[in-house]
Structure formats: C-alpha cells, structure tokens
Design a protein that fits this description.
711 residues, transmembrane beta strand, 44 strands, cell outer membrane, transport, Maltoporin, Chain A, Plug_dom_sf, transmembrane, five-stranded mixed sheet, single chain
C-alpha cells in the first residue's frame, strides 16, 4: 500500500506542470569535463589525472537504482554486498571499502564509522546523479586519509536549462523469481520524481525524491512465516528486506566569476532481520510456543552542503566546501511467536551507530600571472564524533558503549608546471595533524606528456594513509569463550601507488571514432592492520600493524563510436601479494593473478529511436593465501591457498520513447546468467556469507520494467 500511495502522490504532484522540452540531461554535451583532482573544472582530455567517467546516459541505459549497481560494471571494482546487514561496499584493486574515499560533489560522505570510507553504496541512489568520476590509486594529497585505493566522486545535477522541468520514473523489478505487486509485495518497487526550476539567468532550484522498496530475497530460506519443529534454520531471508526513502533539494546561483550552491540530502532506511533459529518459549499455564529473536535497523542521514567558487581580487581562484552531516543507525529487538505469527514483546530502540561530522575544505589557486605555472594551496578539516552502542561490534561488546571524537586538520600544496605545449608536471605534498594519531605526510608527483596530437601518457605517483576503524580501535569482547580486543595504539596504514596510462585517439574513418587505452598500476600498503592471535592458551586476539599488501594491475580499453552505435570494452589482469603473520609463522607472499573483462554496447534505431543496451562483466578466479582454521588452538598456524570462484554478469535493456520523447518505456533482464553465490575458501562463514565456503554476491536473474515521463 505504501508504494501505491507514493506513486499516486508523485503523479499528482506533477500534473500541474506544463509540458517542457527535454531537460539538460538529454542535451548533447559540448565537452566532457571533470572536477576530481583538478584545480578547477577541466576538460577530461586535459586532466593531469586519469579519470574514468560514467555519465548520466550510461547510468540510465543500465536501468540501475543505486551507485552500487553502477560501479559493479567497472573493471577492478567489486561491490561486496553483505546480505546480513543489507550494506554494499566497494573493493578497489582487491582492497575493501575502508581503503576507498567516497565523495558526493567533492565532499566525503558520512557513514556509520566516519567520513568517506566504509560507505554503503546501496544508500546512494542514482536519481539525481549527473556523472560518477573514478580515480584509482593513492590520492592522499588531494583527498586525505583513506584514499589509498582510489576516489569515487559522485556529481549530482544542480542546474537545468529549461524554466521548468519534471521527470517521473516508476520501476518494477523481480527479485530472482519473486514478484507480487498486489498481494505480498514481493520484488523491488522504485518511484522517483525530479523537479527543476530556472528562476532566472542566475538562480535555479532542484528537488528530487526516490523511494526504493526491496522486499527481500528468500533464496534457500523460506521467509519469516516459516516454522519447522526440527529447527532446520531455514526461516528468514538470504537478502534482508529494505525500505529506503531519499530526498534532495538544492539552490544554485551563478554569475560572472562566482557560483555557489546549497544542498540538503535526507535518507531514511529500514532493514528487517529475521533470525533463522527458533527456541522453545514458555507462555505460562503449561502452554508453550516457539520464538525467534528478530531485529530491525533504522537509519537516518542528513547531509548539509555549501559550495562556493569565486575569484579573490582579479586573479586568485577560491573553491570552498562546507558540510555538516549526521548518520544515526538504531536497532530494535523483539520476540516473535513464529507458529502464531505475532510479536510477544518489543524492546526500546537503541543506538547502533551515531556519527556527526563537520567538514570543510578550501583551495586557492592561480596566484601567478603565468600561463605555464600554477599552484594550489589548500586546507581540510573534519571533526568526527562517533557513538557505538554496546551491541554494535561482534557479540555484545561486554555491555560497553563507545563514544569518541576525532579531529583531523591538513594543509596541502601542489604546483602544476606546463613545461611546454606537450609536457606538464604536478608535484604535491600534504601534512595532516590529528588529535588521535601522529602527524602524517603524503606526497604525489604526476606527469602528463602529449606524445602526438592524438595521444598522451600519464605517470602518477601518490601516497595515502588509512586510519584505523572504530572496530579495530575499540572492540572489547571478553567472556568464557572469547578474548578479542581493539588496540588504541594502532598507527595508520600507509599506501603508495604508481600508475602509467596511455590514451590514443585514432583518426576518424567513415565516421568511425576509435579510442584505445593501456594502463599499468602498482599499489603497496604497509603496516596493514589485521586481527591476530597474541596468545594460544588462553586464546586471545587483538589488532596489530603487522602485514604488507601489494597489487599489480595491467589493463586495456577500447571505445568505438559511429552514429547511433557505441561500444566500450576493457580487460585487466591483477595480481595480489599479501603477507600474513601469526606468531613466528609467515605466509608465502607470491603474486596470484586473476583476469577481468567488461563490455558495454548501445545501438539506437534511426526510425523508431529504439535503444538496445547490453552490459557484460567477467570476473576470474581469485586466489589468495589464508590461515587454515584449526580446532586445536595450540597447533602451529598453517597457511593455505584459498580461492573465490569466477562468474559472469550480463544485463540487457530495451528502451522505446513515445510522444516526442516525453514518455519512455524500458524493459530488461539483469543477471541473465543467474549468478547468486560463488565458492569462497578465502573467508568462510560470516555475516556476508551464505555458509562455509560460500559467498552471496547477487540474488539471481531478475526482470524489470521502467516508465519515465518527462513533462
């Protein structure tokens, strides 16, 4: 009923709006520009960094609903979903979400455990995204701590060319084979509304709202109503039900050399965990029943953001970002009578995580009246206060609440020197200060050389730190069976990367445009934090800076365009070397390589304007040394070569416009090869695993229909 009412309200809201021409999303781009790692907005072809761009049209053709689904198509990015919590985080170059900085409009996004890292990408919908920019490699000088594997910068729409624009979108999608809109509500149901108002030549307003209703996926389980006296642990969902509502509103001003915007983002999300275990429960008077200990999670996030770009005097460029963000996640436990399908008791809501962040970043550039030399001086500060409830970490954290505040301040300086028309050089340095950690230094050196008028080479060196997480610092689980403790003396990890990138644009022949790219990268992470055994009898664990991690990446890409046809293809080979230490035993550190490939192809029929879109990605077998589990804690540690199985993903979309492009219908299939889980002997059993040696990745093949109406 909730989604039906939302659909009707959304449609009613826009009926008063007169028909307008297509909005700026459908306007032909004059030149593609990027902002990630730049002094000011810059043509992608002139960027000194290698920036990968996923634009709004590509996102639309994919028919995806969240940033997680978009990024999963990119090479060397694996979105690792946790079907137990509903979160999805990006792994770049084999490193998890804590090594990647996620930004929205150049500002790190608040998450449960801080700013910019460990971000749940399924909480970022694509409803108002203009493009996504990706830079791989350590970006510590420009973006500070946790930008070890790279930066993902999500750029939102803030301005429209028409006086009034409105876009209504409704999407219905199966979840595996499950779908029932009228009765149970099985499947995924999305409604979105985008509004844009150009108040004058200088002022504009935008607003959007998105509702994403995911009813969960049972998989090998049987839903929350299932009951079996043998307690076969088949109750519940492999993918938890999730209801998410996101809204954005922004006002923008632009005149001459000054522009600014203020934007507010609000998110609310409810996730339902249904315990697969049941227990015997006395009701009194000799009556008994069977109960489960269920839990609901409730997340609320606010992001207030102000950005200004202007000139100080007649020359100096200033760009300032200011943000105040909060994210609170609560949980509520209750006892559910499974046979009688009723709630017996409900606890009060308690705080799981509560994070508040004030953030500011300012950059000054263009000090010199010189076309060949420019330099940038900047500062960055964030004050993060976090609260973790007594049951946030594994088990119950011994009833301890954790409340900490971390203040970070940094200055960074870089200079860009155009030695001649072909060669540019940019060195950079950052000094970061913190009230929790020692001072950190990061360095970068980037060079770009135009080998010909159609080709260029980029060489990029950079470093970045990763600060320890709340879990690594403050976990405290001590009982008869466990002794797992955080370590407040941990120091930040340090990552170094070096990359070479070659791009070549072939001369156009018969309107065929072909671009070729080649790349090679090396990443080295030192003092990596791991949970290790510090005592066998009694068995004790803690977190220590003991491991090293290295990865090698070689890749190539091909882009082909002609008239209504476009094709993007890529292939990469990545090797991972990881040194693990347990006591005096050290694992082998050989490189283990695996391959990936992707392809995206679009074709539009001339007469009917029908669009055919195909997206494919292959991920090969990944091998990695891991510590063998041993029931005997006094036995010597042993390392074995585990592996994660290979899989293929294929999506297809057909889109047909009607009524002079005002109405658009899309039909498609996601995950045509019906991938759900893969064999994983690197990590066995856990929150994100279906069971021992099995890791859930997707929920199988699904079908969707989407209707867009552009008023």
């Amino acid at each position: 009923m909730k989604k039906k009412v939302f659909s009707i309200v959304s449609l009613s809201t826009v009926l008063w709006i007169n028909a307008q021409e297509k909005d700026s999303l459908n306007q032909k781009k004059i030149e593609e520009v990027v902002i990630t790692g730049q002094y000011m907005q810059q043509s992608i072809n002139k960027s000194i960094y290698k920036v990968e761009v996923i634009d709004a049209q590509q996102i639309k053709n994919m028919a995806v609903t969240t940033a997680a689904e978009v990024l999963n198509q990119n090479l060397n990015i694996l979105i690792e979903p946790d079907s137990g919590t509903g979160d999805s985080r990006a792994s770049i170059m084999g490193l998890g979400g804590s090594y990647t900085k996620v930004l929205i409009d150049n500002i790190p996004v608040v998450g449960d455990q801080g700013m910019g890292n460990q971000i749940d990408l399924s909480k970022i919908n694509v409803n108002n995204i203009e493009r996504i920019e990706i830079v791989k490699g350590a970006m510590g000088v420009e973006y500070g701590n946790n930008a070890v594997a790279g930066v993902i910068n999500i750029i939102t729409k803030k301005n429209y060319t028409q006086k009034v624009t409105a876009l209504l979108s409704l999407q219905e999608e199966t979840v595996g084979k499950d779908y029932d809109w009228y009765k149970k509500g099985n499947g995924r149901h999305i409604q979105a509304l985008n509004l844009g108002f150009r108040l004058s030549n200088n002022w504009s307003l935008t607003a959007d709202i998105n509702h994403n209703d995911f009813q969960g996926y049972e998989g090998d389980l049987n839903g929350y109503k299932y009951f079996n006296l043998s307690n076969d642990k088949k109750r519940g969902y492999e993918w938890l039900p999730k209801d998410q509502l996101t809204g954005n509103a922004a006002i923008r001003y632009s005149k001459n050399n000054t522009s600014f915007f203020y934007k507010v983002n609000f998110l609310t999300e409810d996730i339902n965990f249904r315990d697969p275990r049941i227990t015997d429960f006395p009701l009194g008077g000799g009556e008994r029943t069977f109960i489960s200990q269920d839990r609901d999670y409730f997340t609320k996030r606010w992001i207030h953001q102000f950005n200004i770009q202007t000139k100080l005097g007649s020359r100096i460029n200033y760009q300032g970002d200011f943000s105040y963000q909060t994210q609170e996640r609560k949980y509520q436990d209750y006892i559910y009578d499974v046979p009688n399908r009723q709630t017996l008791s409900t606890d009060e809501k308690k705080v799981y995580y509560d994070t508040k962040v004030f953030y500011s970043r300012g950059m000054f550039s263009n000090f010199l009246d010189n076309e060949k030399i420019n330099f940038q001086l900047g500062y960055e500060l964030d004050n993060t206060s976090g609260f973790a409830g007594s049951s946030t970490f594994e088990f119950n954290n011994n009833g301890k609440n954790i409340e900490q505040s971390i203040f970070n301040y940094a200055n960074f300086l870089s200079a860009e020197w155009r030695i001649d028309d072909k060669f540019s050089l940019r060195p950079g340095v950052r000094l970061a200060l913190s009230n929790k950690f020692d001072s950190q230094y990061n360095y970068s050196l980037t060079a770009r050389y135009n080998t010909t008028s159609r080709s260029d080479v980029r060489a990029v060196f950079g470093s970045s730190n990763r600060f320890p997480t709340y879990e690594e610092l403050y976990t405290s689980v001590v009982d008869n069976n466990h002794d797992i403790r955080g370590n407040e003396n941990l120091k930040p990890e340090t990552g170094y990367s070096f990359g070479l990138f070659y791009d070549y644009s072939m001369p156009a022949v018969n309107n065929w445009k072909v671009n070729v790219s080649l790349s090679g990268m090396f990443l080295d992470v030192q003092d990596r934090i791991e949970n290790v055994i510090v005592s066998n009898e009694p068995l004790k664990y803690t977190f220590l800076n003991i491991n090293n991690y290295r990865s090698l990446l070689f890749g190539g890409g091909l882009t082909v365009k002609k008239d209504n046809f476009s094709l993007n293809a890529g292939v990469s080979v990545m090797g991972i070397s990881q040194e693990l230490i347990s006591g005096t035993v050290v694992s082998p550190d050989d490189y283990n390589f695996y391959a990936e490939a992707n392809l995206g192809a679009n074709y539009t029929l001339d007469k009917t304007k029908t669009l055919f879109a195909l997206y494919y990605k292959y991920t090969g077998v990944r091998k990695q040394f891991t510590q063998k589990f041993n029931q005997n804690p006094s036995a010597a540690p042993e390392y074995i070569l585990g592996e994660v199985g290979n899989f293929n993903m294929l999506n297809f979309t057909l889109t047909q416009p009607f009524f002079n492009n005002h109405l658009e219908l899309s039909l498609g299939i996601k995950n045509i090869f019906d991938v759900s889980s893969v064999r994983n002997t690197i990590s066995s059993g856990g929150a994100h695993n279906a069971g021992a040696d099995i890791q859930n990745l997707f929920y199988g093949r699904s079908y969707f229909a989407r209707l867009n109406y552009n008023f």
